[in-house]
Amino acid sequence: MAGSQLEQWQEPERQADPSVDSVATAAAITLAPSPEPLGRPRWQRRLAIAAAIAALGSLGGLLWWIFGRTPPHPHVLDISPSQSRYALTLGDSPRLSWQVSQPRQVQTMLLRGYAPDGTLVFGPETYDLSQGLPVSLLAYCDQTRRLLTCREVPLDLREPGQYRFELTLLPNLGLNLAPVRADSSLVTLAGPAQPTVLELAPDQVIYSEAGTQSSANGPAMAPPVTEAGIRVSWIVTHPESLQDLLLVVKRPDGTTLGGRRFTLRNPDGASPISLPEELQPFCQIQDRLICQGVPSGMIEVGQYQFELTPVPVNLGDNELPTAKQSEVVNIEPRPVRIAAFTINGREAEPKYLVPVEPGQPIPGFQVAWRVEGGSTAKVELLPSPGSVGLQGAMAMPLSPAGTTTVTLRVTDGQNPPLVRAVTFETFNPRPNQPVIINQGEAAPSGGSQPATPATPPATTPARPRDPLGDSLRESGSTSGGAPGDLQNRPPEEWNLQF
User: Which residues contact 452 (CB under 8 A, 6 or more apart)?
Assistant: First the structure.
């Protein structure tokens, strides 16, 4: 009812004044409660919360960056060799790579090398970074504000062995930071392969002396040595590691006769291997050094043994490898031969009987000889004068003792000697001379008939004892007399010509 009264009270007024009605309506709309807003999706609210948290975190991070952060320290991010094993051949060396963060905070880098037992064997190599990259690293390193990268840095290290490398960073003094160290893995530096003599052999083990002539009817002879002497051949492995070759000649008892050094590269070892001029006609370098028929110059009669020693590069004193020995080579002497041996111009006979009249001088004779042989041939004429030349002649007297022996002795120094002997024996060709007695003596008194003087028996002088025996004389003479044939034969028929 009240509502109706209000409506009745309001209705005439609205009708009376339309403007008042519109104002009242607007006031009524204003005074009326507003409707509730529509609810947002849950994901939008979560996103808004996350954005607020992120904004607060960013603000906190910015404040920490400006006021509370600690500057980053330098570190060795990596240090490693390019490979774990190196062969120290000519021109090669180990190489090392590393990576360092914050290089601007590093004043100095130190590089050291240690043996597995911790012994310092390399370095320290010092790199000063206070003024940027040092000159020695410019070709191998790149540096930015945050990173230093070095690749394949060569190390001056040529001693074989195992190494562990250590890189130490010394930060700037103002940072008051401790040094930073990092180690590489183990690296093996293998020395160059050692050259080895696989074979050393002479072309012949038996030679004949130079100038020896072989005979078709004689025994087979070894080939004579030439002016080049004994020739030797060899095979050596790993020639790329060779510095020199030492060829030594010895006697079998170890006595050194001489040697030669063949240099295959410069003493500093920096140049490639090359054959010396004296070996070029005989040698070739491939995967091995092969030499054939290298002349040694040994031409004298005797026994020889060769030793070949390969000398590698970068070899210290008293470190020569074991030498290779050849078998013994023998140069045999030229065979000796008595080409002529004459007495008074005729070929010598084993024995001569020489008649010598009593009271007559003892004759002499002429002996001559000619011997063929080499440098070791030795000729002796005995009992005197002893050693003589290969050819000669001389007059020799007969001994008054009745027997003279002359011996020609020839030897080559190795084989049994050749001997020719001649014996001369003197004798009295008329040993039984008759005794003549004077028959003109008077007969004795007493009237008796003079007795016929009796011829006393011829007195036979005692014949000296024949030292060679009666069997060497010719028979046919009377008992106790000289040999009939020799007594009655003229001297020219005795074929002696003294």
Answer: none
Q: Which residues pair with 6 in a beta bridge?
A: none
User: What does the chain come to in residues?
Assistant: 498
The pair phi, psi for residue 53, each rounded to 5°, is -65, -45
Question: Using an 8 Å Cβ cutoff, are 248 and 309 in contact?
Answer: yes
Half-sphere CA count of 487, side-chain side, radius 13 A: 13
8-state DSSP, 360:
S
Cα–Cα dist 117/164, whole Å = 10
Least confident of 56-65, 135-144, 401-410: 56-65
Q: How far apart are the first and last CA of the chain?
A: 209
DSSP state of 300: S
What confidence tens digit (pLDDT) does each residue in 422-432 have? 998 888 877 77
CATH 2.60.40.10 fits 337-432+468-493, yes or no: yes
Give the bridge partners for 22, in sequence order. Answer: none
Query: How far apart are the C-alpha atoms of 114 and 253, rounded to whole Å?
Result: 48
- Spatial neighbors of 446 by CB under 8 A, at least 6 apart, are none
Residue whose structure tokens are 């840095």? 153
Residue with tokens 């012949």: 204
The pTM is what?
Answer: 0.54
* Domain assignments of the chain as residue spans, ordered by start: 75-190, 197-213+221-332, 337-432+468-493
- CA distances 18 to 23, 30, 150, 346, Å, are 9, 19, 95, 194
Fold classification of 197-213+221-332 is Immunoglobulin-like (2.60.40)
Give the Cα separation of 85 and 348 in Å (integer): 85
Q: Name the CA dihedral angle for 487, 488, 490, 494, rounded to a multiple of 10 degrees.
A: -60
Cis peptide leading into residue 124 (ω within 30°): yes
DSSP state of 372: E
| 137 CB-side CA count, 13 A | 23
d(CA 475, CA 488): 13
The percent of residues in the chain predicted with pLDDT above 90, rounded, is 26
d(CA 235, CA 290): 5
